[in-house]
Amino acid sequence: MQRPIVMMPAMEIEKNTWKSLYIKVLPVDLTLHGRDINNEETLKQVIEYDLMLGKVSRIDFTERKGTNGSIQRSAYVHFFLWNAEFGANCRKQIDETGEIVYQGVVNYDGSYTPFMGKWYNGVSKKRFISFRKNLNPISSTEPEEMNKEQLLNNYNKLLENQKKMEQRLEEFIKQEREQLISIADEWRLRCNDKIMTLAELEEITPPERPESPAYREAEMCS
């Protein structure tokens, strides 16, 4: 779904006031518009684009075992900008009642879409997100201040980013080599196959190239 660009007016926040939210239980099967909401990127999209609470700097996750052995996941949402309208309303209700519960979102066309769950387990398909004030924020994210779950979460993020960078590097090398092969094939056609192959050119060191017969022959064909 293509999202329209939304202008988000910034809310003025006092320096010593709270700036992050706490989700005690994030449903493991939460979905919205057919998308799984199960990681930092997708939860951030919900908060920024669907609920329009503000701009998120990062989300920390923690996990613990419930009494029935199931895994319960919590989230700490840190903001660097709060929406002066929707974010302000969220903060106001949390300050007055202690929490705010969203059972769905209002779309850009004014329609309403509820949160849903993939695994029903005999209960309603409807899900919700409950936000509370984060009473113990770690704003600076210093490693010595993090708990085990936060450190593991950051470690997994680093691994994921490293994998993405390696994939980009491999794709870049592949594209560059394909381009060089294409250029070599073009020269070969222009010079009636007299120019050296790409493998042969790669074996020649740069100082030798101006003096090589193949280089002079290629120059004549240009």
What structural class should be given to the helix and strand makeup? alpha+beta
Strand content: 15-25%
Q: Please provide the count of β strands.
A: 10
Helix and strand run: EEEHEEHEEEEEHHH
Radius of gyration: 28 Å
Q: How many helical stretches?
A: 5
Question: How many domains comprise the coordinates?
Answer: 2
Question: Short description, anyone?
Answer:
With 222 residues, the protein is an alpha+beta fold.
Notes on the structure:
The chain is an alpha+beta fold and 222 residues long. The model has no long low-confidence stretch (mean pLDDT 79). The longest helix is centred in the last third of the chain and has 43 residues, at 148-190. Strand 2 and strand 3 (35-36) form a beta hairpin. The protein has helices at 40-50, 86-97, 148-190, 198-203, 213-221; strands spanning 20-23, 30-32, 35-36, 54-65, 71-82, 99-102, 104-106, 112-114, 116-117, 129-133. It has five helices and ten strands; from the N terminus they run E-E-E-H-E-E-H-E-E-E-E-E-H-H-H.
Topology:
Elements: E1 20-23, E2 30-32, E3 35-36, H1 40-50, E4 54-65, E5 71-82, H2 86-97, E6 99-102, E7 104-106, E8 112-114, E9 116-117, E10 129-133, H3 148-190, H4 198-203, H5 213-221
Antiparallel strand pairs: 1-5, 1-10, 2-3, 2-9, 4-5, 6-10, 7-8
